[in-house]
Amino acid sequence: MDSRQFRKAPKHVDVTVGESVRMLRELQELSQSRLAELCGLSQPTISGIEKDRIKLGVERAKVLARALKCHPAVLLFPGWDVESESAA
Which end of the chain has fewer CB atoms < 10 Å from its terminal CB, N or C? Predict the structure, then answer.
């Protein structure tokens, strides 16, 4: 299919960094403990990130992204609209 036949879905909710981590973890059916094992962080750290009490940061985002099989930007910038926002 030609991508011009699709229209962008409207944005309904804002997602925090912590919510994006939690959603990706749950979609992969991982517990906080299992994700902690996969990325070498503690379970309380994972919990704190998901509750937005602990800042994710670039280095943690890289580690979590490897474990969650996604790009770190997906975790760091969950609400960023590539088409309407410039990076600079």
Answer: C
Confidence of residue 79 (pLDDT cuts 50, 70, 90): confident
Taking the C-alpha atoms of residue 15 and residue 19, their distance in angstroms, rounded to an integer, is 6
What is the C-alpha separation between 17 and 6, in angstroms, rounded? 28
Burial of 68 (C-beta count, 10 Å sphere; 0-12/13-18/19+)? buried
CATH number for the segment(s) 15-75: 1.10.260.40
- Per the CB < 8 A criterion, the answer to whether 25 and 43 are in contact is no
Helix, strand, coil percentages for the chain (3-state, nearest 5)? 55, 0, 45
User: What φ, ψ does residue 12 adopt, rounded to 5°?
Assistant: -105, -35
* Predicted local confidence at residue 28, as pLDDT: 96
**Both tokens of residue 17?**
């960094």
In the DSSP assignment, the letter for residue 84 is T
The single residue listed with the structure tokens 């992204």 is 65
